[in-house]
Design a protein that fits this description.
- There is one protein chain.
- By secondary structure, this protein is α+β, with helices and mostly antiparallel strands.
- It is built from 14 helices and ten strands.
- It has helices spanning 21-29, 48-55, 90-101, 106-111, 113-130, 136-153, 160-167, 178-202, 208-217, 224-254, 257-265, 270-281, 313-316, 351-368, and strands at residues 32-37, 40-45, 60-61, 134-135, 288-292, 296-298, 301-303, 308-311, 373-374, 396-398.
- The strands form three sheets. It has a five-stranded mixed sheet. The chain has a three-stranded antiparallel sheet with strand order 4-10-9. It has a two-stranded antiparallel sheet with strand order 6-7.
Length: 408
Amino acid sequence: MADQLPTYPITERTCPYDPPAGLLELQSQAPLVRVQLPTGPAWLVTGYDAARALLDDPRMSSDMGREGFPTLYKQKMRPVLKGSFMRMDGDDHAFYRTMLAGEFSVKRVAAMRPEIEEACDQLLDEMVRKGPPTNLHEAYGIPVSSRSICRLLGVPYEDSEFFTTHLEALFDPHRAGAPERIAASKAALSGYLDELVTRKQKAPGDDMISRLVADYLVPGKVERPELLLTSYLLLAAGHETTANMITTGTAALLMHPEQLTAVRDEPQLLRGAVEELLRYLSIFQFGITRIAVEDVTFGDQTVAAGEGIIVSPLLGNRDQDVYGDPHTLDVRRRSRPHLSFGHGPHLCVGHTLARIELQIAFERLLARLPDLSLAVPASEVPFRTETLVFGTVDLPVTWGGRTAGASA
């Protein structure tokens, strides 16, 4: 019976970097396990191969408007993603992916490298000038992420405090009063972006929103609400997740000094180290929701039409049949692609930008502050385990006399 199913989400962790013991127990049972969500039963996808297969299966729909679509929220609220391209299927989804593909192409993102490097260097200069200790999230993680997504979209960076404040509400849906806070923040950000689009129509710049206005809004290929929602989601996703990865990834390296030394002293490891940190941390922790539009079988288990699934990147990335010693951070690891950006047609559209941001942010940080260390005992670093995005938002760090020269 439904009331006998294990409840999900499970958030309590013994070690901040390891999945909850209750989740690992479910993973040991089968690649798909029935769980009880706040809205009813669904399948939790615990295995790597099952996750890839189901995320790539066109019989699994992202449309939140379908009856029985699974939700993780205890409080009733209007889902932020509902009606967006992230919740479309088939040709509708493909249209928006094509619209955005050029903006996140390898070539366009690579062209942003000098600006990201300059931003990192300037922020590190300011950190060194003020001296230790500092909260790395506020001094480095947030502004690196904000500057990059602002530059791409064409959002004035001087407005970053405004949208950072409102974006924080979106990633804590279990907090008391969350529905009202999320609705108010979404309205404020939508109003802000509406005014910004109007300005881009009158005075376009070299940025994504200007190009989407000229190429899609003006010719009538997309409606204004659709453009606003797309811009809103890209701003939110590009800001919060990357900022959190910079901060939480740095914390993980500082708490695993042998891994930190390897990355700092062997720059050729950096690209692989970023992928390992993405796998190891799996910061989008609760999972990816879908609903079956037809019966779908994986192994000896069948997800019936109308049943929901939650694909857990956290568990897929810790599948011991795929990753040797999966609960160990190993920056030298060479293994199969992780699931932290999803998989299949809905693979995160901004993964190219996120990867280059992380590579530059870690490279610049470790080169400039080679003796970076925690300013508090590791046990006192606070982690968020009940929010959509796992990690630490307060990372007190310090450094001594070993600093590289200021940027030119």
